[in-house]
């Protein structure tokens, strides 16, 4: 197996390197849930991401949820993208998704944030999910930046969402009222997503980062 390792260095070295422009709600959704992001990935290849979790309200989440997530493919008339969680030599299937739609890592990211928030802060996961879904179709700012990948400087695009910024219940969310969802994407990253970060002040952080593309010869 050929292992292609991609090194990513956040490129915001100064505020002047980042430009932001408004993005309509439908464009925000289309950018985050971009279709065709797996079309150029060989069906015998595997995308590997790393997830790091910290939670002041649920400290056990770090050991439970920190690990690698592998995306592979199942051949067929309608190929499927398979997600698998890997930790300390153990493997757990996370689900299968139509590969033609796009990279399911975005759905995994949002669903785990909903679950983690409901578990740590309480409240209805249905309410939390609906607020997150509503944020996905609101006008946002898209930030143009740069990153270094395998020694090459590439252009990145970052979208930040604040699903509970105006929520009447935010003061009861134990810090999650300040939740920021930050997705950084690049044409130069296999599978489109460079990093997917959810952060709520000092109480919670979930970061999924693209690690590498493994290919068989």
Query: Tell me, what's the shape?
Result: globular
Mean pLDDT score = 89
Quote the beta fraction: 35-45%
Oligomer: single chain
Please, how many helices? 4
Number of strands: 12
| Cα gyration radius (Å) | 17 Å
> Which stretches are low in confidence, meaning pLDDT under 50 for 5 or more residues running?
1-16
What is the chain-wise order of helices and strands?
A: EEEHEHEEEHHEEEEE
Give the end-to-end Cα distance, rounded to a whole number of Å. Answer: 6 Å
Biggest sheet character: 12 strands, antiparallel
Class by alpha and beta content? alpha+beta
List the helices and strands and how they pair.
Blueprint (H helix, E strand, L loop, with lengths): L1 E4 L2 E3 L8 E5 L1 H8 L13 E10 L4 H6 L1 E8 L5 E8 L2 E9 L6 H17 L3 H11 L4 E10 L2 E10 L18 E6 L7 E8 L3 E12 L2
Antiparallel strand pairs: 1-12, 2-8, 3-8, 4-5, 4-12, 5-6, 6-7, 8-9, 9-10, 10-11, 11-12
Structure description:
It is a single chain. A hairpin with a 3-residue loop joins strand 11 and strand 12 (204-215). This protein is globular. With 217 residues, it is of the alpha+beta class. Helix content is 19%, strand content 43%. It has helices at residues 25-32, 60-65, 105-121, 125-135; strands at 2-5, 8-10, 19-23, 46-55, 67-74, 80-87, 90-98, 140-149, 152-161, 180-185, 193-200, 204-215. Strands 1, 2, 3, 4, 5, 6, 7, 8, 9, 10, 11 and 12 form a twelve-stranded antiparallel sheet that branches. Helix 3 packs across helix 4 (125-135). Residues 1-16 have low confidence and may be disordered.
